[in-house]
């Protein structure tokens, strides 16, 4: 099947519509994200952490989360997996349950 001018026109219109949709989303991101959360769709917040205003407990918790993420990636790399199915138990969860990580 040869590429015709209709294909190129459709591609250009689709690209323009996608760009316009992205532009509108970025301008209204907070409202759109709140609307989606209202219906149970959780999105990661794109805001960076303000580590200067975090308590010591919050900093330690974030450190443990990052250490767990690093351990998961190292485990996956060591076992030649893209995404580790059996992830190491996080230290924070282990503390809550009383188990060792």
Verbal overview:
By secondary structure, the protein is mostly helical. It folds into 2 domains: 5-38; 51-97. The chain is built from 4 helices and no strands. The protein is flat. It starts with a helix and ends with a helix. The mean pLDDT is 82.
Task: Summarize, please.
By secondary structure, the protein is mainly α. Helix content is 62%, strand content 0%.
Report the helical percentage: 55-70%
Structural Rg: 22 Å
Q: DSSP helix count?
A: 4
Structural class: mainly alpha
Number of separate structural domains: 2
DSSP, total strands: 0
Q: Main sheet, how many strands, which sense, barrel?
A: none
Succession of helices and strands = HHHH
Secondary structure elements and their pairing?
Layout: H1 5-27, H2 29-38, H3 56-78, H4 91-97
Sum up the structure in keywords:
62% helix; flat; 0% strand; 2 domains
